[in-house]
Design goal:
Blueprint lengths: L2 H10 L2 E8 L5 E11 L8 E3 L3 E3 L28 H4 L12 E2 L13 E3 L8 E2 L1 E8 L6
Antiparallel strand pairs: 1-2, 1-8, 2-3, 2-4, 5-6, 6-7
Length: 142
């Protein structure tokens, strides 16, 4: 999709983010965030907000709010000497390096270099599949 389009979508109106996760043992979980927002290119596509969440996957995005998007050629995270995008084989809004990493290398099962959602299972457990979907936030009529 591209970060420019993602920023434009989340800047124009409030968005929900649905994260669908699948483990290698056909275990499925989800987490829904009610206020997903990505910053502009000038701010290195900072993960500005996720809002509150509910679901059975756990909130593994909480730690990444406020972090800038890092790629293997553009380290935008913290003070670590290493580039997390290089080390973990994919771009993400890293913080020391992650509690989630949905852009990890598909099929990679070594040293947390694959798709990771920390609250899904044991530490450094790689997932089979992750899907992120956004849509305009639905307001309840209470």
């Amino acid at each position: 999709m591209g970060m420019d389009k993602l920023h434009a979508m989340t800047a124009s109106e409030p968005q929900e983010l649905l994260v669908l996760l699948e483990g290698y043992k056909e275990d499925y979980r989800y987490q829904l965030y009610d206020n997903f927002k990505i910053g502009a290119e000038a701010n290195n596509y900072t993960l500005e907000s996720v809002g509150s969440s509910h679901g059975d996957a756990g909130n593994s995005l909480y730690n990444h709010v406020g972090m800038k998007f890092t790629t293997k050629d553009r380290k935008n995270h913290g003070t670590l000497n290493t580039n997390c995008a290089e080390l973990y084989k994919g771009a993400w809004c890293f913080r020391s390096c992650y509690t989630s990493h949905l852009c990890g290398k598909y099929g990679e099962n070594n040293n947390a270099q694959g798709i990771v959602w920390e609250t899904f299972g044991k530490n450094n457990y790689n997932l089979k599949r992750a899907t992120m979907m956004i849509r305009p936030r639905r307001f309840s009529s209470n």
